[in-house]
Amino acid sequence: MTEDDLNSPPDQTRDTGDELRQHEVRTALLDLLAEVGTVTATEAAVRLGHSSGLCSFHLRQLARHGLIEEAPHRRGRARPWRLRQHSPSASPPPEEQFGDLARGLEDESWQRWLGQRDQAPAEWRHDEAFSAVAYLTPEEMSRVANVIRRALAPYQDCEQRALARPDGARPVALISRLFPLLPHTADGTDQE
Fold first, then answer.
1. What is the pTM of this model?
2. Which one of 1.10.10.10, 2.40.50.140, 1.10.10.60, 3.40.190.10 gives the CATH number of domain 3-124?
3. Could you read off the pLDDT of 133-156 as tens digits, one per residue?
4. What stretch of H or E contains 7?
């Protein structure tokens, strides 16, 4: 068992909605850091409405993934964090790195679902995964993305308002990726 396992809040360890909640907490922490510059776990907890233990855990995870770092501070228990300072040519900006992390968590969650679907309650053993290829202009792709966002908006409000959730509701990952398919060359490599 690792230090993070011991320090992880009980409701954040092996729950079916774990990855989704982790993604949301980490996104909120990154947004807060972008807004205020530096923040401690206690300050983040007050601003975001989570426990300081939960915020501390996720701040350490973001640091482990290289997205944030400890900010210079005087000695003491306070441990302020800031977005990682990057040199212009070193690596992608934090929002791109977090996008990669989020997609990795999404993929990991999907693989976990596939491996453990038979353990879910019978009414939850199916999924609604689908994909399609459509020929779109960049403007049409943006319009499709906006339609999807608007369709999901009424359901996302329940994340913050638990009493608004219908009985039997569980967290469900809603993932949509719209991107152009790149052509392949005759030798099978991607064309730039």
1. 0.45
2. 1.10.10.10
3. 999 999 999 999 999 989 988 887
4. helix 3-7
